[in-house]
Amino acid sequence: MIAYIKGKLTTIKDNAVIVDVHGIGYELICPNPYVFEPEMNQQVQIHTHHHVREDAQILFGFRNTDEKYLFTKLISVSGIGPKGALAILAGVNIQGFIAAVENEDEKFLTTFPGVGKKTARQIILDLKGKLVHDFAIENTEEQTSGEAAGTSGREIVSEALDALKSLGFTTSELKKITPQLKSDKTLTNTDEVIRKAFSLLAK
Questions:
Q1: Which of 22, 49, 142, 196 has a 20 to 30 A CA-CA distance from 42?
Q2: Which structural domain range is residue 46 located in?
């Protein structure tokens, strides 16, 4: 199995990045490829999960081993494939997700594309109690955002829009709702912005 790819980041697409390793370009499907923008044309090390199917071999890329580990746990849940796992990782930080699982917050889990009540319940049944020790979550009573203290509203909205692009929403769709997201002062982290965006896009 391929544990990570180390090379020059040459391309960022809506759902993937391409890393050049000694003249060979490796395409890595990522939850949110735009998080790698600051490292464009630089040397990067991206953790990978090598997914093998009968008809294809796919490399998924992650910022760190925690994100990769959660991906492997998600695809072990009945009803969640790689695409669904990527959608979850693109829309939430690890601590916020684990807090939702531990608190059995089905409403929060169903905000992700493709996750209905049945799948949300399955996530809780399969993963509750199995993640808190691995990720050393100190407080699961609140869904922590993981955003750095002092992050501006503009930065939070920008990060949320990047995540939504990676989920397949078009620039024109996002432009229509951006003013409403920026003007809503009650949104304090990326997770909240993404949930608000989902509700606006569904109208």
A1: 49
A2: 4-62
153-188 pLDDT, tens digit each? 677 888 888 878 777 778 888 888 888 888 887 887
Is 140 within a domain?
no
Domain count, the chain: 3
Which residues contact residue 138 at a Cβ distance below 8 angstroms, ignoring those fewer than 6 apart? none
pLDDT classification of 203: cutoffs 50, 70, 90: low
Same domain, yes or no, for 17 and 57? Answer: yes
Predicted TM-score of the model (pTM): 0.67
Nearest in space to 111 (alpha carbons), one of 173, 182, 200, 172:
200
